[in-house]
Amino acid sequence: MYKYETHCHTSEGSKCSHITAEKLVEFYKNQGFDGVFITDHFFNGNTTVDRSQSWDKMVNDFCLGFENAKKTGEKLGIDVFFGFEYSYHGTDVLVYGLDKNWLLSHPDVMSLGTTEFCDFARSDGALIIHAHPFREASYINMIRLFPRNVDGVEIYNACRTDFENARAKEYADNYRLFYSAGTDNHVGLRESLGGMEFDEKIKNVPDFVQKMKAQKGKIFRMDL
Q1: pTM here?
Q2: Terminus of the chain with fewer CB atoms < 10 Å: N or C?
Q3: Rounded-to-integer distance, Cα 170 and Cα 84, Å
């Protein structure tokens, strides 16, 4: 089985991350993973990007974490893929299938509401996963669910409690949304990791999207 991290953050792109892209990829290579999806916080989340800049400069800065990770992956022989985490007051979705050129071409995307964004991104081929939907934190005053605007649910997040993950699975089951799993890694070494595994190697992001929609992946947990 080929193992992939679907949810992690670099210090280049996410203010809350404490690990560089290079060290993050090295960590996953050492843990025997076959690939990593870099999902740094977008401009409406805990980003490092200066939002007073031009749109093109913002996008270029945002992609630094992924680009640094990609270079390290090519050096070490581990695949690195692009994604991002879109936010609304603590409600987050993971976006796969859009790239830097798509972002550069859509400077109006920040004017969209959350459900509008999800629908628009999906119409352009994106896969939308509702990340840790039942996360509880002091800065989150409401749990929001968008079952008609997402493709799947992160039913195992290594940073969340068993209770929160169990509620996420119920959410997915009730609305017949497919499962996803990831670590939400901001530090590297943790007590446990999560991700998706496949019988075949992921060729590129569209291949991942297709395999996820066909439910060919299996969630896994790795305790360290």
Answers
A1: 0.97
A2: C
A3: 25
Task: Give the separation between CA 72 and CA 144, rounded to whole angstroms.
Answer: 36
Using DSSP's 3-state secondary structure scheme, residue 96 falls into strand
* Residue 162, burial from CB neighbour count under 10 angstroms (0-12, 13-18, 19+): exposed
Q: Tell me: the pLDDT tens digits for 83-142?
A: 999 999 999 999 999 999 999 999 999 999 999 999 999 999 999 999 999 999 998 999
The low-confidence residues of the chain, meaning pLDDT below 70, are: none
- For 76, the enclosing helix (H) or strand (E) is helix 64-76
- Coil, strand or helix: which one is 155? strand
Residue for token pair 């499962």: 179
pLDDT for the residue numbered 178: 96
CATH number of 2-223: 3.20.20.140
Domain ranges for the chain: 2-223
What does the pLDDT read at residue 29?
A: 98
Contacts of residue 39, Cβ cutoff 8 Å, sequence gap at least 6: 6, 7, 8, 9, 83, 84, 85, 94, 95, 182
Question: Which of these, 4, 15, 20, lies nearest to 72 by C-alpha position?
Answer: 20
Q: What pLDDT shows up at residue 171?
A: 98
> Residue 223: in which H helix or E strand, if any?
strand 218-223
Residue 203's alpha-carbon distances to 35, 37, 79, 207, in angstroms, are: 10, 13, 9, 6
Dihedral over Cα of 34, 96, 65, 41: its sign: negative
